[in-house]
């Protein structure tokens, strides 16, 4: 598996934290926009949780030699965050934001286990943990505000 992380991933990945931080800060600092900011934070978090699955579908649809047997696990990992994020959208704001933080961190943990089997590249995993921790911190701040 190629361990090089493309330049766009190093730029666009961290840029994806901007809405998390902006919405959490808006909820904290702008009481008149708090409800809208928290709803938007919940929706963005669910969108990102669903986005994470696409990585694993891509790996499953174009497996490296010898990794064909990982397709079911990869595709399962691709579906579960989306389903859980959908449930989080149905919860009240505070619990929904907490659930999304847990979903993002649990997905990173599952990817860590996959990396130990050589199924996820190390540079991707390091990027994902940084992004997951940043996003989870913003979601937890939103949950505290809610």
TrEMBL record:
Membrane-spanning parts: 12-30, 36-59, 127-145
Keyword vocabulary terms for this entry: Membrane, Transmembrane, Transmembrane helix
Pfam family for this entry, one: DUF3429
Name this polypeptide is given: DUF3429 domain-containing protein
């Amino acid at each position: 598996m190629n361990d090089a992380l493309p330049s766009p991933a190093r730029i666009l990945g961290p840029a994806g934290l901007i809405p998390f931080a902006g919405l959490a800060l808006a909820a904290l600092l702008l009481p008149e926009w708090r409800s809208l900011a928290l709803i938007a934070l919940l929706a963005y978090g669910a969108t990102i949780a669903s986005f994470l699955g696409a990585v694993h579908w891509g790996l499953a649809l174009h497996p490296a030699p010898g990794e064909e047997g990982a397709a079911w696990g990869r595709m399962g990992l691709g579906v579960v965050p989306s389903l859980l994020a959908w449930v989080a959208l149905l919860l009240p704001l505070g619990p929904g934001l907490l659930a999304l933080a847990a979903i993002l961190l649990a997905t990173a943990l599952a990817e860590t286990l996959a990396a130990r089997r050589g199924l996820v590249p190390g540079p991707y995993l390091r990027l994902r943990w940084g992004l997951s921790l940043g996003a989870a911190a913003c979601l937890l701040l939103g949950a505290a505000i809610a």
